Amino acid sequence: MKILLSITLFFLLGCFSCKKQSSEEHSKPNIIVIIADDAGWSDFSFHNSKIKTPNIDALTEKGLQLNRFYVNPTCSPSRASFFTGRPASRMGIVAPISGKSKLSLPDSVTTLPQLLKKKGYKTALFGKWHLGLNPENGPKKYGFDYSYGFLHGQIDQYTHKYKNGDQSWHRNGNFIEEKGHTTDLITNETIKWLDSIEDTSKNFFVQIAYSAPHFPLQEEEHWKAPYKDVFKNQSRVDYAASMAHMDDAIGKIFTHLKEKQLDENTIILFFSDNGAMENWYPKEQYNGKFDDHPELGKNLPLRDWKTSNYEGAIRTPAIVYWKDHTSNGINNEYISVIDMMPTLAKFIGAESIPNTVEGIDVSNAILNNQTLIDREIYVRGHRQESIIVKPWKLIRTRSLDGPIKHELYNLDTDPFEKNNVLEQHPDIFAELEPKLIHQFNKDSKTVNLGLPQ
Questions:
Q1: Which CATH number fits domain 28-368: 3.40.720.10, 3.30.565.10, 3.10.20.740, 3.55.50.30?
Q2: Is there a smaller number of Cβ atoms within 10 Å at the N or the C end of the chain?
Q3: Distance (Å, rounded) from C-alpha 278 to C-alpha 295?
Q4: Each residue of 424-438: pLDDT tens digit?
Q5: How distant is the alpha carbon of residue 79 from its chain centre?
Q6: Structure confidence by residue, pLDDT tens digits, 248-297
Q7: Global pTM?
Q8: What CATH architecture does domain 377-441 belong to?
């Protein structure tokens, strides 16, 4: 009788444990990250643009705007920082990986998708990779179960080839040829993958990285028509059309999530990888196929463009939404893209994060509007580097043939960086410069872009 009771108790406890584990898995959120490419601060209608982005606007009406969200000046570094939770410059990535470069993420760093896989998540990437230009350094190597899209930083929207003619379009690391516009193909593949999920109790992490509104701009007439009387410059019309096309695609994904009831426990994070580019003069790219693009995105009232360390390049629109968890509104805490890895890890209940992570958990700021402690946000590009310690920002500019230049701004009183107050605040400069140098000295020594190191 005792043996029978012991066996019965063993199975009851086992079943309870299984149910508890299943319940815990089901309570973890799914994660969808949507990244725009070179979208300007003022190119969204929720920022009063004449470009209409109703689906992204709807996300702001439900979710939380991260109004001080800092990325890197260009695309590869921002993506590297997001995936690893550390400044991309630590890995020698301070500019777009381009040409025939062999640069990629190091094997020694745990990535966000690898962390999520350990917690039982299915992982998929649709769209732009830009962290290794060859399939052997593609998404699969860094934790993605499924990947589809392009390896390079820019592609022809219809041939899907890189500017020098290299193949880039792939599915799971195998080059493929397909017909269709990049925005539509990425969207359709995402929806198809979501439809393939049979067990909705199993969690997933999906990253949707659009090529829009990055040049070259190739949009059908029906996307351009609404903007022909709004903007005078044709490339600006094309840019607006690209934004509208992407917004419509995002709306289709949102609708599909709701239809499949996948929106009930899914975190949605949207941001742009950097600010807008002012223009594009392709010269010999794509064998001369494209005309000049003299007017692209707009970052106003923020200062400057992609590639710089001014706000127009590194402060981008960002929105996070998690049903019944996030509140609608605007959060003005200073948050970095490197904070997303530890924050998402907290949301999914990860017991620990890799010791290489330098970002901080900002989950309480997002969920409870908690004020963050003062911290350093370090951003390095290939022309400048900056350090932000609220409310101050110190920018250092190096050059091959001139002296080092410093600029100091109070971002609370001067968010548009009109007044360099370096001379008025030598004490702040004396405090921040050593911090900037310390961060700079922690970077990879293999970075070499022809500038002083």
A1: 3.40.720.10
A2: N
A3: 6
A4: 999 999 999 999 999
A5: 6
A6: 999 999 999 999 999 999 999 999 999 999 999 998 899 999 999 999 99
A7: 0.93
A8: 2-Layer Sandwich (3.30)
